[in-house]
Amino acid sequence: MADEDGLLDKVHGLSDLELAALLCLVNREHCIVSTPPAALDELVEELQLIATKTFGLKCAVVDCTPQTSLEDFASSILTQQSLAAPRSGSPLRTRNDSYFSRAGISPLTSVTATSPTGQGIGGSSIAHVIVARNLDRAPRAVQIQTAPKQFLFIAALGAESGGQAHVTLHLNDYLFIAHWHDPDDGFPNLDDAYDAADGAETASTESVLKKSINGDLPAVSENPLFREGDVAAIAKSSRDVQIDVDVLRYLMNWGSQLEAIESILEGVGPEDVIEDVLGMVTAPL
Asked: 259 in a domain, yes or no?
């Protein structure tokens, strides 16, 4: 079993972006992460490193435009693997296995992840973490499609300030949190990668950070900060949290009375919301 004190130490050392990713993984939810457009590329690079380095998960980046088709989107979220499971169906599964499902909306166009023979050698599998750059620019038909369980979907958008990043209303209903990252807060994983590249012989021509431009994503860490067991331990602890009746009544008033909502939300920012959710997650620890 994961050490509880060790988990808390890890959580307290996370950056704002890493914390947002952890909260989504623990709750099996997805999110919007935005930053000023000028820093969007750096944000995407940082999210890739968080997926592979902090959590040891495969990551795929989808660059969305108004011309992005369903087939383009489906093929972009697949990663190559040496040995795939012996199945020939769609890696996106069915509507019943989806986070983004709703009656009347057809699932994403099916993409075969294994070889025609079913052996799966050299086939593809869906990435654990998908970073959709400029998802708000994609056609509505792409934004409302289904996605499988047990993975993290991040819509990376350009926005000058918090609260300005939006996707289609359907997808908004299924996103857990929206976080605006101030570039002045830095990109710690990206900075570490730059420092490592500076000492390499090829640093002047091909930084490790340039690889994603050529289609290669950062390698998955063999010793990530948060392993699957750590995330599962936090998720289990959060499910065991018991809310006092006074707190529950307070929350119900918050959701039903306009005056209460206006009073509570006055001066509340994204950091406060994240702290409240983190408190629920770490309460048993």
From this structure: no
The count of domains in the chain is 1
Residue 70 C-alpha from the chain's centroid:
20
Torsion of Cα atoms, 230 then 236 then 241 then 242, to 10°: -170
Task: Look up the CATH number of the domain holding residue 187.
Answer: 3.40.50
Q: Please name the amino acid found at residue 186.
A: G
Judge residue 235's burial from the number of C-beta atoms within 10 Å of its C-beta, 0-12 exposed, 13-18 middle, 19 or more buried. Answer: middle
Tens digits of per-residue pLDDT, 134-164?
A: 999 988 888 776 554 457 888 999 999 888 8
The terminus-to-terminus CA distance of the chain in angstroms comes to 13
Torsion angle of C-alpha atoms 33, 37, 38, 44, degrees rounded to 10: 40
Within 8 A by CB and 6+ apart from 269, the residues are 162
Q: What is the pTM of this model?
A: 0.63
